[in-house]
Amino acid sequence: MPTGHVFIATSLDGFIARTDGSLDWLIRPEHEGEDHGYDAFMSDIDAIVMGRGTYQAVLGFDAWPYDKPVLVLSRSLAATPVPDALRGKVTFADLTPQAAMDHLGAQGAARVYVDGGQIVQAFLREGLVHDLILSRIPVLLGTGRSLFGALDGDLELTHQATTAFLSGLVQSRYLVRP
Predict the structure, then answer these.
(1) Are 28 and 168 contacting, i.e. CB atoms less than 8 angstroms apart?
(2) pLDDT of residue 66
């Protein structure tokens, strides 16, 4: 079975997007030219799983940013066709996190990038996340979409490393304890 890996940015107060889903606060001139490890992370990923909200946010980018297969988990999109420009790159499905990992594993994926707030929360609740790389952006939003939600109990993490960048971004890597 594949392992799930999270690489995500939050505001200092723990939000991954504004209440309306906007990510405008992530694009900061002081981050240009700094390598925050995303390319190295993606080079070791076989597939990506995300929710509808993240998918729709990514559609707003100038170009489709992924060269890996993307599985979008969404009840509403599952019954719709994938846009022509994304055929062969994106699949829509109404699957549980476990079924999604089984599906991706059957396609040969060993390492899966788990992206999007609700998807990350669901995969954490089901024990399908191996590690998290959290980048904290030095901005307070005050309100927005939280990265973490309710859990059935404590989720123990083991800190692996923290790096501070000149731009003020602070990135930490945690292993999820079984």
Answers:
(1) no
(2) 96
Q: Which of 44, 50, 29 is nearest to 123 (CA)?
A: 50
For the residues of 12-55, what is the DSSP string, one character each?
A: TTSEEE-TT---GGG--GGGTT---SHHHHHHT-SEEEEEHHHH
Token digits for 52?
């509808």
Q: Cβ neighbours of residue 101 under 8 Å, at least 6 residues apart?
A: 1, 2, 4, 49, 112, 128
Instruction: Give the pLDDT band of residue 151 (cuts 50, 70, 90).
Output: confident
150's CB contacts (< 8 A; 6+ apart) are none
Total domains present in the chain: 1
**Residue 143 belongs to domain spanning:** 3-176
Which residues pair with residue 9 across a beta bridge? Answer: 135
pLDDT in tens, 66-81: 999 999 999 999 999 9
Q: Output the domain CATH number for residue 22.
A: 3.40.430.10
Q: Which of 15, 2, 1 is nearest to 135 (CA)?
A: 15
Span 24-42, average pLDDT: 82
How many CA atoms, within 13 angstroms, populate the side-chain half-sphere of residue 62? 0
